[in-house]
Hints:
By secondary structure, this protein is of the alpha/beta class. The protein contains 7 helices and 10 strands. The strands form 3 sheets. Strands 1, 4, 5, 6, 7 and 10 form a 6-stranded parallel β-sheet that branches. A two-stranded parallel ribbon has the order 2-3. Strand 6, helix 4 and strand 7 form a beta-alpha-beta unit. Helix 1 runs parallel beside helix 3 and helix 5 runs parallel beside helix 6. The mean pLDDT is about 85.
Amino acid sequence: MKKHIPILAYHSFDTVRFPKNKLAISPDLFRVHMERLRRGGYEVVPLAKCAELRGKESIFQSLTALTFDDGYLDNYEHAFPVLARLGFPGTFFVTPEAVGTKGFMTWGMLKEMLRTPGIEIGSHGLFHKPLADISENEARTSIFDSKKLLEDKLATPVRAFSYPSGSFTGKIVGMVREAGYQYACAASHVHDRRYLGNPHLLRRIKISVTSESPHGFFWRLSGFYHAFGRP
């Protein structure tokens, strides 16, 4: 029996008890998660490794990968230092139009992060609009232009893409491949077996406050989380 490498999807980090962003967790909880990975003997691998091993994962492997969507400033303040300290790789998906605006990371921060081994910057589209809900031309612009802009600004190849709001169609997946992205992350609810083994539709596990208990977090890491149809 095979299992998926659990790709964890974080978004935001907030110190308030009831954050406005429902996908935000506390910085303390994030640190607990990372320490559990370290103490639990998990190997945190780059996202590229997940694409490479897609469909070939062994049930005996304790692998996981870390991703962060939207490019919030709190990712730089709270997540990046923890990854750097532990030597964990991670992929941060940013929307170029938001970079440098209030509440989001700056180009200087992104460049600083890239100097840390294992840190990758990926595209989350030129603008944070669900690609399946906009015109084909607009979707193409978002996919292609965001890659070019990030590569121009950061002077590094951009290999990873994350579908904004997890929204895609077969045609959009084709555009992502055509643009030259080597792998892409979908939402956690992609159950269609036609997509199994597709490096441009890597399923992820959304992390939120419901992952707070040790049982809940390790269940998500088990690799069988998706097998039972969990979103």
